[in-house]
């Protein structure tokens, strides 16, 4: 009976932690959406260019007709989110709509606030590229956080998720590239037949994609050590005890000397490189070949330099983002 009560207490505690983590995730998504709306008001709209994706189309419509991007984004994304809800993933669709709704409400509220003192715009056009560059960096950060929370910014991301569900082998990057290219071309005519908005759109897309991709991969990168040694038992024991990562033993033979040797294959976190280096230098006739690993799939623990597992702050949902 005591054991059963203890197990129930553990389950209740885990359930409470899970709920708190999920609530925190939704709060982060809402905050990120507000950050994106501020980004548009300070760096996108004042510099008169169309960003990438569906919001780029909405921005051009707002420029021509005066209809707010806040309304247009909701009008376009609600049916796409409902489609994703039934076709792809319910948690992903709900979390994405939290972002879309908060982003749209943020834009509608900020429209009534005078932010001219903070908006980046130059009267004579000097250094105009700084606005789109900063906007792209911020949007890349926004996108990376959303992916970790199993959410999207809406628009073309919804379309890509649906296409990937039915055609998993079809590259959706080509479709996104085609849409963004069309937006850049159309922006030439929308903003008075000028090349500058086209260049700013391309610059924004490049910065947001580069920063987003870099931040998303930073948590999945690792370092692979191929350790050639005559002391495989001692080296592997230190790797396990000090790094809490195991190693794969491979028998080998030195072709120059003809002697039998060993190779230990070990993948560690980037924060543990210095510690592995200390272990390798400790043993004679031991050296390592080091190369980066762009991504780790499967059961690989993310450990700190002290060997403790790094706990994910955000709830990843069903991990059905692309």
Topology:
Layout: H1 2-44, H2 54-65, H3 69-87, H4 90-110, H5 130-148, H6 156-166, H7 172-190, H8 196-218, E1 222-229, H9 232-243, E2 248-253, E3 260-268, H10 273-282, E4 287-293
Helix pairs in contact: 1-4, 1-5, 2-3, 2-7, 3-4, 3-6, 5-8, 6-7, 7-8, 9-10
Task: Describe the overall structure.
This protein is α+β, with helices and mostly antiparallel strands and 322 residues long. Helix content is 59%, strand content 9%. The chain has 10 helices and 4 strands. It has helices spanning 2-44, 54-65, 69-87, 90-110, 130-148, 156-166, 172-190, 196-218, 232-243, 273-282, and strands at residues 222-229, 248-253, 260-268, 287-293. Strands 2-3-1-4 form a 4-stranded antiparallel sheet, with helices on one face. Helix 1 (2-44) packs across helix 4, helix 1 packs antiparallel against helix 5 (130-148) and helix 2 (54-65) packs antiparallel against helix 3 (69-87). The chain is elongated and about 80 Å long. The protein starts with a helix and ends in a 29-residue tail after the last strand.
